[in-house]
Design a protein that fits this description.
elongated; 11 helices; 6-stranded parallel sheet; Rossmann fold; alpha/beta
């Protein structure tokens, strides 16, 4: 009787053997994982980016470790250490200011890093983001083209150099470009970009500037908080006051009325960032940063008027 020797792969399949990822990593010096750090994992903003990242990462044969750094990066250093211990092959750093402390830690890991929805003038890290100033200009200019001249703004944290100050600058630039007076009482700065921030700061803005006909909110959540607060105050949107948001989160379409907003291509940003990271991981290549396109998504929260 002649026995045929089975290939090793066949034996493995018959016995239900699964290769150990750690063992393979020791041989290849790769963990086939990448880390991604979010300041708020549960937000719709983060989930859209993560979806794009996961699609790209899994297509490229790796996995993702997701870290929630919490507001203002309270746990960022802890998670950077964790990702170091997990020997991830690269890191995506999302929507948070890059500090010297973070950069030194990342540099010590000696692995590729790509910033997503943030950037750093100080440190040489590639990024993928929308031009926040330009997008805020577009949102405000849209309101002006719809006939509004008395336009207010609910901004985020003015100390935030990524999405705080640039969006205020874009609003002011659009007002100035169209020959409209910029009044500081027409701008209110909140602590962040949440629904609660919009809800709580809307009454203050209307108290300061009761003649406004339109508001640019620096995030969809701020806009929805303002709409809820307006409803409580008996102000009809958009009949009495128009509101435009920023992000185009899924909830914007579900709002009453559906929210007109400036769209960031969040899923695409996640995918592009992951692909950039893998290019760097593969051959140490230097990749160019990407400014992604933005656009106005028209729904029902902005009314055209003939004031101008």
């Amino acid at each position: 009787m002649v026995f045929q020797k089975k290939p090793k792969k066949k034996y493995c399949k018959d016995l239900g053997y699964q290769p150990n990822a750690i063992a393979r990593g020791l041989v290849s010096n790769k963990s086939n994982t990448v880390g991604i750090l979010f300041p708020e994992v549960s937000s719709q903003f983060s989930s859209k980016i993560l979806r794009g990242v996961e699609e790209a990462v899994h297509d490229l044969g790796s996995s993702v470790i997701v870290c929630n750094t919490a507001s203002q990066g309270k746990r960022t250093m802890k998670y950077l250490q964790l990702l170091s211990e997990k020997r991830v092959d690269g890191i995506l750093f999302v929507s948070e200011k890059m500090t010297e402390e973070y950069y030194k830690k990342l540099k010590s890991l000696n692995i590729p890093v790509v910033l997503v929805s943030t950037e750093s003038y100080q440190f040489p890290l590639p990024f993928v983001k929308v031009d926040d100033k330009h997008a805020a200009f577009t949102a405000t200019d849209y309101l002006i083209k719809m006939g509004h001249s008395k336009i207010g703004m609910i901004g985020g944290n003015i100390q935030d150099p990524i999405a705080g100050q640039p969006r205020v600058d874009g609003y002011k630039q659009a007002m100035s470009y169209n020959g409209l007076t910029i009044k500081e009482e027409n701008i209110i700065h909140s602590h962040g970009f949440s629904f609660e921030d919009g809800y709580n700061h809307f009454p203050k803005l209307m108290e300061q500037s009761p003649d406004l006909t339109a508001i640019f909110a620096a995030s969809d959540e701020l806009a929805l908080g303002a709409i809820s607060s307006a409803h409580k105050a008996g102000i009809s949107i958009p009949e009495e006051l128009s509101i435009i948001g920023y992000d185009n989160l899924p909830i914007a379409e579900m709002a009453i009325p559906p929210l007109t907003t400036v769209a960031q291509p969040l899923e695409q940003m996640g995918r592009v960032a992951a692909e950039m990271l893998f290019t760097m991981m593969a051959d140490g290549a230097i990749v160019e940063s990407r400014i992604m396109p933005h656009s106005v998504v028209e729904r029902e929260s902005v009314k055209r008027i003939s004031e101008r």
